[in-house]
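Hi R.,

As promised on Friday, here is the backbone we talked about, encoded as structure tokens. Could you run it through your design pipeline when you get a chance and send me back a sequence?
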């Protein structure tokens, strides 16, 4: 039986401690999980590869009602692939997988390299550059171009602000979150209009581009998606591509903190490029947890779960679980050389199977973008990192180095 935390509600503790809230308590209790209440609702918190393997696989959980509406409205929204189940999910997910893991995916890092090079010309003449801010714009342009959205339809500054705000405000409450939700409505209107114009023949995105595929996609019933739903799915590509900016900043931070790795990767030897990127995804914080509600009754850990029960899987804590990762706080890319560990011990983008579970279809694309970013940072440009506050506060979700990673004296 999973133990219950003392005290009526853990919301304040969760918000105060952030990423380490669940794993600290698991360590203290010597278990894989515990029961408590968050925002007044009973919840079971779990961490570790075993728990991840049970959470994914078997379609036991729905994402509906599993995260606060303030988070859902910014990150997913009604009608998206994350709210679907079984065959409906498989059909919609197939569209994402065909685009993000099919032949078109190879173009994404190429477009990114092109946009990076364009931005580099601007950075060379700037006094200083905040890498996170710049990356959000570079990746907004990258995502839009890859989707087949013409540059003159983008309004890059505005879209960057809206898309980046959806991610940075997802963990906030009150006015900051409401403002981001309002901005999201505007972005959805823009996206729905693009889809409608593609269908009307007024816009002609290239054959095979995501916008074209999305406009033509049919759900199981043979119907095309409602423009509002298609808009949500277009944002489901544009927004997370922008979010990769956070991993790019963490990669830059790792290169700064571990000059040995900078040297090796700058030499052009790419043997350890993938292990380096994987260690960035494992070590640095992004999605703290993922929530699910049980679709039917079952028993786990000697604990009876009823339909509707709420579970939080600790993604960050699983990536830092000392049972799977020796010295988990250390940055050790070597651990990914020929890795044979439990597949569900690395879950920064969810677990399970891409086709049947909600595992992030953009995971390979994220890795490819990060590899390109490391190439750019180590081999295509020089820069100096001035003194600044690079603290990563694990109580802030989503986390980022406080300064946003300022660089100076940029040259090719
Ligand atoms: C910045 C890096 C990224 C992180 C940390 C991330 C993380 C996640 C997580 C945790 C989930 C939810 C898993 C679940 O519900 O169990 C998810 C789902 C999803 N991600 Fe990502 N993601 C990233 C990048 C991307 C990219 C680049 C794309 C697309 C271009 C993408 C598209 C999606 C979609 C469509 C889903 C819903 C999948 C489904 O419900 O089946 N993500 N992602």
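Update: got your reply. Pasting your designed sequence below so it's all in one thread:
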């Amino acid at each position: 039986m999973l133990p219950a935390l003392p005290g009526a509600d853990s919301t304040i503790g969760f918000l105060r401690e952030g990423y380490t809230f669940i794993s600290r308590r698991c360590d203290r209790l010597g278990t894989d999980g515990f029961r408590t209440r968050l925002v007044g609702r009973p919840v079971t918190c779990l961490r570790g590869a075993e728990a991840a393997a049970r959470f994914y696989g078997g379609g036991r959980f729905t994402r509906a009602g599993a995260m606060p509406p303030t988070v859902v409205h910014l990150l997913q929204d009604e009608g998206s692939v994350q709210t679907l189940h079984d065959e409906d999910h498989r059909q919609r997910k197939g569209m994402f997988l065909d685009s993000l893991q099919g032949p078109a995916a190879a173009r994404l890092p190429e477009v990114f390299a092109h946009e990076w090079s364009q931005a580099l010309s601007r950075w060379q003449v700037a006094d200083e550059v905040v890498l996170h801010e710049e990356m959000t714009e570079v990746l907004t342009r990258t995502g839009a171009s890859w989707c087949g959205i013409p540059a003159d339809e983008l309004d890059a500054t505005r879209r960057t602000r809206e898309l980046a705000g959806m991610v940075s405000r997802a963990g906030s409450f009150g006015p900051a979150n409401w403002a981001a939700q309002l901005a999201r409505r505007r972005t959805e209107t823009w996206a729905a209009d693009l889809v409608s114009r593609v269908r009307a023949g007024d816009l002609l995105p290239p054959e095979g581009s995501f916008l074209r595929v999305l406009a033509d996609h049919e759900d199981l019933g043979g119907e095309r998606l409602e423009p509002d739903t298609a808009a949500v799915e277009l944002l489901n590509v544009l927004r997370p591509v922008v979010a990769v900016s956070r991993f790019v900043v963490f990669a830059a931070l790792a290169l700064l903190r571990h000059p040995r790795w900078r040297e090796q990767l700058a030499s052009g030897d790419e043997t350890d490029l993938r292990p380096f990127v994987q260690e960035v995804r494992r070590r640095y914080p992004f999605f703290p947890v993922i929530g699910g509600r049980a679709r039917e009754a079952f028993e786990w850990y000697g604990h009876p779960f009823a339909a509707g029960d709420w579970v939080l899987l600790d993604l960050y804590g699983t990536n830092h679980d000392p049972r799977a990762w020796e010295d988990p706080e250390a940055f050790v890319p070597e651990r990914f050389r020929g890795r044979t560990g439990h597949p569900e011990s690395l879950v920064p983008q969810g677990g399970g199977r891409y086709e049947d579970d909600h595992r992030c279809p953009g995971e390979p694309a994220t890795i490819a973008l990060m590899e390109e970013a490391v190439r750019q940072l180590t081999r295509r440009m020089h820069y100096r990192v001035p003194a600044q506050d690079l603290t990563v506060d694990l109580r802030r979700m989503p986390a980022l180095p406080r300064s946003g990673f300022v660089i100076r004296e940029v040259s090719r």
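One thing I noticed while checking it: The chain has a mean pLDDT of 94.

Thanks again,
M.
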